[in-house]
Write a structure and sequence with these properties.
Two copies of one chain form a homodimer. By secondary structure, the first copy, chain A, is α/β, with parallel strands linked by helices. Chain A has ten helices and 14 strands. Chains A and B meet through α3, β5, α4 and α10 of A and α3, β5, α4 and α10 of B.
């Protein structure tokens, strides 16, 4: 299911990060960096809310718009009942749609927002997401204090908040088309190997996208997956080559989870970054900068989400996955 | 933010319920009734998945459509990471958007789906939701075995799955317009009094809707709120009268949480039904039937959601709320 958009543009973006991300190779591209996982708040949950809210406020400041100028906020995150998004967005006092597609949520929001702008239902919107390493560890995994070792295939939830403003007013970068993904079940069950869980969804959405648009990967300067990490990136590359003869390489493909950190130096991130904000931090900072500076002309952002809960893992259900793709193009 | 729709119709609906709902006054309107909270499954989580999946399958059967004929599924529910929706929808193998606005999710889905049809992005979609009394009790409240008494203001999460198919093909009932709600903070903190939490959101969305459309409540045969329950219904009535001089009465207004059960006979439901499927069960069965039989000509469905998690309640955060409104009209 691929949508074409005629008049949808990126007005601007804002990214807020924390310790680990600000120590990574993309540090100079972020708008704000906290050096404390609590961000001066009393709880890690409030810290996540703070970073998401910061990203919206920075975005408003960058665009010289007030909250009354914004038609709609679309947001989602990993915390149970997406409370980070709702608490962070409430100050806006604007219509709100809450979304959840795990780490694919940022592009889910961009697709819905772009469709509403393209259909002339709204003039603009803000699409936001967040994650926090500690809120995710607390909620999805063992308490950090427990000190349980993780396998090398495990990913590291990124900490930050990120927002993008879409508009019908012409700008340098447009949202050109998008593909809504399907739920994929590849009988994966290991929450410590999300790359293996999500690579099939990324492949399914990319192949669908290329078929729907009658394009090849050469039509994109760069294809980015959300948070497959080191191993998932390799699995996707191998799978696309063997099943579809699509050749991903260093020049045309990268994964935000691998880009956000220096995997050799930052050993604690294991296979790389994950969490909904991981891809948003990379796409809305470095990638958006490259587009604005015309170093990239057209990119395909494929965000990848693992669909499960701690309960479903305890009950030995398969971990499902989904991926959504959005094409951004320089005008 | 109110959207007008020109060519969006209801193709059909399907509702699946369980013990308590099938013992209520609307029992004859449901498509399927389980008499066991496990629905023959091994866990209550699987039971909820089963009921949601059933509702999609019954809907396909009623419409004589195959899953390949469906462009998109939009779904959300209360379980952490909306796993009921994702596990239930995966068999469809169709593009999927996961949503979360608590008990306002059903109309959130209808608004996004209708916008995509109206904007000619898709031809049809299925919007689904579910809840299960026991999965909610397990996740949000004390274990049932604990036997903690609840105050009379507490509501009772409805058990079931419900789906609606929207289409661009003309039918008897159309989705005429819709209002996306804002996040409302009325400094409420009691999870055992959701009616008080959500009534302000229902009021905000109704008033916005009437202002945007330049209508009065007399333009609707019936206004329905989602799951305010006995006390929340009274709070909304009083509040609208005193603040806006809008007079809700027995003829023009009802609440799905009050309608789903017989509050006098079914004492266990306390102030009435809640959960995202509560309003969907009433709207997609009895109300849809009344519209098809032209006993109602135009109704406004306002679903109401409380935005919180167990963690946010433990941390003494305010419980936020949101409401989305959709106008259905007989042609």
């Amino acid at each position: 299911m691929t949508f074409k958009f005629n008049n949808v543009y990126v007005e601007n973006t804002a990214t807020v990060t924390n310790l680990y991300e600000a120590n990574g190779p993309l540090k100079k591209y972020f708008d704000k960096k906290y050096d404390d996982l609590y961000c001066g708040e009393k709880s890690i949950e409030k810290a996540e809310v703070r970073m998401l809210k910061d990203s919206i406020q920075i975005l408003l400041k960058k665009t010289s718009l007030g909250k009354d100028d914004i038609d709609l906020v679309l947001a989602g995150d990993l915390t149970n009942q997406i409370t980070s998004s709702t608490y962070a967005s409430s100050f806006m006092n604007t219509p709100f749609l809450g979304l959840y597609n795990a780490c694919a949520t940022s592009m889910e929001a961009v697709i819905i927002g772009s469709s509403l702008i393209d259909g002339k239902k709204i003039n603009n919107c803000i699409c936001s997401t967040s994650s926090h390493n500690m809120t995710s560890e607390k909620q999805f995994r063992n308490p950090t204090e427990y000190g349980g070792p993780k396998p090398r295939t495990a990913t590291f939830t990124a900490t930050g908040g990120a927002s993008i403003m879409l508009t019908n007013k012409k700008s340098d970068v447009r949202v050109e088309c998008a593909t809504i993904g399907r739920i994929v079940d590849f009988a994966q069950t290991d929450p410590n190997h999300m790359g293996a869980v999500m690579a099939p969804a990324a492949a399914d959405t990319l192949v669908t996208h290329l078929q729907d648009t009658k394009r090849s990967i050469d039509d994109y300067d760069l294809i980015l997956t959300g948070d497959l990490g080191f191993f998932g990136k390799q699995i996707l590359t191998d799978y696309l080559k063997s099943e579809y003869n699509i050749v991903l390489n260093k020049k045309n493909y990268n994964d935000c989870g691998v880009m956000l950190y220096d995997l050799k130096r930052q050993k604690e991130v294991l296979a790389g970054g994950s969490g909904p904000v991981c891809s948003a931090l990379v796409n809305y900072s470095y990638i958006y900068d490259m587009l604005k500076n015309k170093k990239l002309k057209r990119v395909l952002l494929i965000t990848t989400g693992a669909l499960f809960s701690p309960t479903s893992v305890f009950q030995k259900e398969n971990i499902l996955s989904i991926a959504h793709a959005v094409s951004l193009e320089v005008i």
